[in-house]
Amino acid sequence: VCDCTNKGSGADWAQGVGAQLYSVLRPRGPEFAGTLYYRRKFNRFVSAKATYTVDAFSFSNVGFGLVVDVGRLNAYVAVDNVLFYGNIARAKSVSLQLGFNIKIDER
Q: How far apart are CA 66 and CA 13, in angstroms?
């Protein structure tokens, strides 16, 4: 549910779509990538994101992320290039990231 009259930051929206452009200068020239994403907040504690990225290595990079926020603890799992997990030898890259963050409130 979107309260489109809310002029705030949008951090409390249940869903979001967006695009991100990335570039880096390398010795052999610049590299570029573009990502489209869909983000969904299921409740106060759980949110997820699905991404599609195009770069010089792949036109089929699909990724997913899941975040759980409980109190001061933030835990996440992210997978990248999931279309190649069945045959990793064909993939130019795949990744699985697991992480925990401890949030420090400076109030």
A: 17
Catalogue the E-assigned strands of the chain. Answer: 15-26, 29-41, 46-55, 61-70, 73-80, 95-102
Cα four-point dihedral sign 57, 93, 32, 24: negative
In sequence order, the β-bridge partners of residue 82 are: none
CB count, 10 Å around CB of 54? Answer: 14
Residue 104 contacts by C-beta under 8 Å, 6 or more apart in sequence?
72
- For the stretch 61-98, pLDDT in tens is 899 999 999 999 999 999 988 888 777 777 777 788 99
Instruction: Please write down the long-range contacts of 62-69, taking CB distance under 8 Å and 24 or more positions apart.
Output: 69/44, 69/45
d(CA 94, CA 57): 12
